Amino acid sequence: PLKICNCIWRLLHDSLPTFLTLKSRGITNVGMCPLCDSDDESATHLFIHCPFSRACWYGSQLAIQSSKVVAVFVQQWVSNTILEHRHMEEENMKCLQLFFIIIWSIWHPRTK
Fold first, then answer.
1. What is the tens place of the pLDDT at every residue in 38-76?
2. CA 87: distance to chain centroid?
3. How many other C-beta atoms are found inside a 10 Å radius of the C-beta of residue 43?
4. Nearest Cα to 75, choosing from 50, 53, 42, 98?
5. Is 6 buried (19+), middle (13-18) or exposed (0-12) by CB count in 10 A?
6. Which DSSP helix (H) or strand (E) runs through 20?
7. Can you tell me the distance from the alpha carbon of 40 to that of 29, in angstroms, rounded to the nearest whole number?
């Protein structure tokens, strides 16, 4: 769906309105992650390092251990995942779809 494509595009272009991004623009004073309240809410923290997100990734069908992700930024991780699954085989497309759905599922409740 377009809402997921939009979320992924915004993530790759570092334009998701995370608290850290909004704080750097002077829009909010809040910077802590609302899911764990243990670190600033950057996109990288939100999608890779946050304990809530780690549970989402590991509990999914992909069973990704985000604690083992070596990418410095979430944009690198997403780009690398797209490149790894760029062949148009059905299994690769299903993995990418699920990967994108998990990202959107982590982001969407945060926006309400």
1. 899 999 999 999 999 999 999 999 999 998 887 789 999
2. 22
3. 23
4. 42
5. exposed
6. helix 19-24
7. 11
